[in-house]
Amino acid sequence: MTQAVYPVRAQFAQRARIDRAEYERLYAQSVAQPDTFWGAVAQRLEWMTPPTQVKDTSFALADFRIRWYADGELNASVNCLDRHLAARGDKTALIFEPDDPAQPAQRISYRELHARVCQLANAMRQLGVRKGDRVTIYLPMIPEAAIAMLACARIGAIHMVVFGGFSAHSIADRVADCGSKLIITADQGLRGGKPVALKANVDAALKLPGTNSVETVLVVRHTHAAVDMQMPRDRWYDAVVDSQPTQCEPERMNAEDPLFILYTSGSTGKPKGVLHTTGGYLVYVSYTHEAVFDLREDDVYWCTADVGWITGHSYIVYGPLANGATALMFEGVPNYPDVSRFWQVIDKHAVTIFYTAPTAIRALMREGDEPVQRTSRKSLRLLGTVGEPINPEAWRWYHEVVGDARCPIVDTWWQTETGGILIAPLPGATDLKPGSATRPVFGVLPALVDASGQVLEGEAEGNLVLLDSWPGQMRTVYGDHQRFIDTYFKTYPGTYFTGDGCRRDSDGDYWITGRVDDVINVSGHRIGTAEVESALVSHPKVAEAAVVGFPHDLKGQGIYAYVTLIAGEAPSDELRAELVRHVRAEIGPIATPDHLQWAPGLPKTRSGKIMRRILRKIAEAGSSQLAPDRLGDTSTLADPSVVDALVKERLAK
Ligand code: 6R9
């Protein structure tokens, strides 16, 4: 296979923090002497008690442990705020660009951000929130989202952010699982001029079982829409926070004390509460943010992710602020008021580093070059992608049209579980290949294994595992440590299994090929097929459901659902629409099925296992590929005629 290679640009390398020789040297040291390497990197943070221990980890099941900097003490909010006050007090920490471009943008200095975080932290203490308590954050992309996270960190409360696109049911499930005391939300969010009923969703969630732990709901006035306030449970944020002192004593946290929980979808069951701790996480996200984005003091850095996802946690809030950077928070969407918005925002705020998802690039590419070319984008020097594999065509458009063929692109592979970026080019060190995340960052040991767990050498394709720990790794599934071990460390014993497939080319560059488990990646958002199935079967007319992913031009993958109705119910377009609405209500709009096919029966093995491989083929295929001999081995099916019926129905569409 011939691959385009974009060599490191000399102009970039000259000024870069890390060039090729430095990358080779540091990488070799990081894997040969992890204690020395990560001990030195940890000094970039301000510790209340500097750690004397560095790495204490083992993936072996008999001896399993993941601890980093275990005797160190620090506070994450001190590292993101107080530490910068002397030299960067007046520097802009956050730029807020609202949904409506006619509304003024806000610039919040490190000094002001520190004061506002302290005020909320004091208010939370007054409301009875203590170290170790869980706090749910369900906010739009407004500065209060970052402020709430940092205020939790200040008092040692564990934040649990729920993405604003999740429904009341999803909020309730998460609140019940982690038992949070306080919810911080807003009257409404705004996306593309349309309100999102955040407070109403919280109200509905708190009517659902398991949510009794919640004592208080703090409500930010954002759109000023009228909302129900149920006293004394519901309190206006400004009424409780604005009168608080602007200093707040930070909690001393052990490096291994929890910083946050973030739920993510897996192949089975309900979403898992991924738990990250304080010291290793902060060291890792601050270091990778600086190295991968080649951060400079005067950069204006914009990551378009939502703080409801790990990318927002690590690379809008903790990494950039720990580094004293200026980070932009955008409330809106790429196509409002028009499809030029991203590029207009770049010009308006002189953004130098822009980090977004392939799905957004593909959608904007469809609109042609003109909406990009009517803007300048001269300030840009570096581009990044995250969330899913980027197709080379979209990469080239991003490079040539958005970046005027001037800006390197860092394709960053990582996961909620990994805390920070694990595989990515360094812009001053690594030649780029469209579609490849290229090389491991410092301390990361990727390997490819075949189905039997045999490690594959050289040019190969297999399942991606990691052979050793890195500081930003998740420590447990909240409340279910056994599930953590079972999910990640049992498939290929002695390694962390990522759930991704991957190819390594003859140069040693890594190409992520996508999930090999039952997780669908829709527009960079992880959805478990099991979650969508259980939402469908919770409808009284549904007997059984099977959900698979299929290739989708814009979203990367779409959601394809096969539904068997209970006896006596007839398929209809109305029922189909009702089931789609039902899934949106149970999980949220991001889980909306793209196709829903009626299935008189599902293809099962004699032991009753649904054969998803066949369902995937039917969902994927154009009609020519649906010839029976193209579906692979169907001999283990209990009733092969089921497949014929599904294919017939698919072809009839
Ligand atoms: C950060 C984030 C993780 C899954 C991951 C993989 C996919 C992420 C990617 C990528 C190819 C990239 N993924 N980045 N695939 N190239 N640069 O997205 O976390 O939401 O947990 O998703 O996303 O499949 O396993 P998360």
Automatic annotation (TrEMBL):
N6-acetyllysine: residues carrying this PTM: 609
Top-tier EC class: ligase
Keywords in alphabetical order: Acetylation, ATP-binding, Ligase, Magnesium, Metal-binding, Nucleotide-binding
PROSITE patterns, per database record: AMP_BINDING (PS00455)
Residue span, AMP-binding enzyme C-terminal domain: 531-609
Xref: CDD domains: ACS (cd05966)
Domain Acetyl-coenzyme A synthetase N-terminal: 23-80
Cofactor: Mg(2+)
GO MF annotation terms: acetate-CoA ligase activity
EC identifiers of the protein: 6.2.1.1
Binding residues for CoA: 191-194, 311, 335, 523, 584
SUPFAM superfamilies (UniProt xref): Acetyl-CoA synthetase-like
Name under which the protein is recorded: Acetyl-coenzyme A synthetase
Source organism: Lysobacter koreensis
